[in-house]
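One-letter codes give the sequence; the fold follows as tokens. Both lines appear below.
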Amino acid sequence: MKLTKFTHACVRLESDDGRALVIDPGEWSEEAALDGVRDVLVTHEHFDHLDVEFLTRVAADNPRLHVWAPAPVAQNQLAGLGAAVTPVAPGDTVTAAGFAVQVVGGAHAEIYEGLPGCANVGYVVDGAVYHPGDALHVPDAPIDTLLVPASAPWLKLAEALDFVRAVKPRRAYPIHDAMLSVIGQQSVERWMTAKGDTGYAWLGPGDAVTI
């Protein structure tokens, strides 16, 4: 499987036979992430994970586009896509772009005083790659590759370190990193490398790895 990182929380997964799946194409991510893609997973409603206008344009040009998202997102932000959207909830298992996808989690991490209080699901793809969205939910099953949030109003570095230790993946790549400077990126990488047994590497927008 090829994993390509786009700006902030958007990633694209591609199989050897050309199947492609995109997770969280937000307003900061590159539109090229969806080139040739028919299947999209959305973790929650926030603009940095969901570009409603862009997905609406893509759906108009590609009637085969399909999006999976938490029920509130499917019923509100993406209601205009009609049958092109399937609501999902924790415990569901769906097939997207031929990948088996387990839906986990359920709630966005608290930012401050109970906010934002919105639905957030994570996706485990083919039992190997885990995108948690804006949460630190630890799945029951073993995870090979973790996409770990690196910077957010709801997150501190110690929590990200504990999250990696709890999940125990073989390797981790940062997401949710658009607000970090180069110095911040290097600091996160230094701590992740020093304090865990997980292989960790920074991926810039457009960088790809085979997993």
Remarks:
- The chain has a mean pLDDT of 97.
- The chain has one domain: 2-210.
- DSSP finds four helices and 14 strands in the chain.
- Helices lie at 52-61, 71-75, 157-167, 182-194.
